[in-house]
Automatic annotation (TrEMBL):
Gene3D superfamilies: Lipopolysaccharide (LPS) transport protein A like domain. NCBIfam families: LptC_YrbK. It comes from the Bacteria. InterPro entries: LipoPS_assembly_LptC-rel, LptC. This is LPS export ABC transporter protein LptC.
Length: 184
């Protein structure tokens, strides 16, 4: 009888240990799920070229080495973690070239955040350089509060804070200094 009681006792201990281990495994998986970030891209693409058209005319061409689409998060956005190369076209076919090391397009706001070695160049050799720049797609308008360098055929200027159209025809500067050629 003692032998049977000992076997029943060992089986009971083994069964309880099994339940405990299974219960801990389930609990461990729940803990892993808590730490799991649901902030992952719903779409991913490598070496992309996007063409934006309006009424059959190309308005912009965007090239990027990598695109991550976060369409399922609370505030959806598209990220270009390896940079972008954008060509903007006006109604007459005049081009403006934009490059940046990183870009994020926020859906619903039509704002693009360009960061890291941002450069905007026009066909007539005007160049603006900064570390961060925003682009309002709806109004075709750029703006930044960061320091910038603007190079034009007539001189170089520096400042902190500027907003302008893509052709540099209208520029509103905040803190500004520089040199320009004087007409005689």
């Amino acid at each position: 009888m003692k032998f049977k009681a000992k076997i029943v006792f060992l089986h009971t201990i083994a069964f309880l240990a099994f339940i405990f281990i299974v219960g801990c495994e389930s609990n461990f998986r729940d803990v892993q799920k808590i730490n799991f970030s649901e902030f992952s891209p719903s779409g991913e693409a490598d070496s992309i070229t996007l063409k934006y058209t309006d009424s059959g005319k190309i308005k912009a061409v965007l090239k990027g080495k990598k695109m991550l689409d976060y369409a399922t998060v609370e505030y959806p956005f598209t990220e270009f973690p390896k940079g972008v190369d954008v060509t903007l076209y006006d109604g007459k076919g005049k081009r403006t070239f934009v490059t940046a090391n990183h870009a994020m397009q926020f859906k619903g706001t039509e704002i693009i955040d360009l960061t890291g070695n941002v450069k905007i160049r026009t066909e007539d050799n005007q160049l603006l350089e900064t570390e961060q720049l925003y682009y309002d797609q709806k109004n075709a308008w750029f703006f930044t509060e960061h320091k910038y360098k603007f190079t034009a055929p007539k001189g170089v200027s520096y400042g902190e804070g500027v907003d302008f159209d893509k052709d540099f025809k209208i520029m509103n500067t905040q803190k500004f200094s520089g040199q320009t050629e004087a007409k005689e």
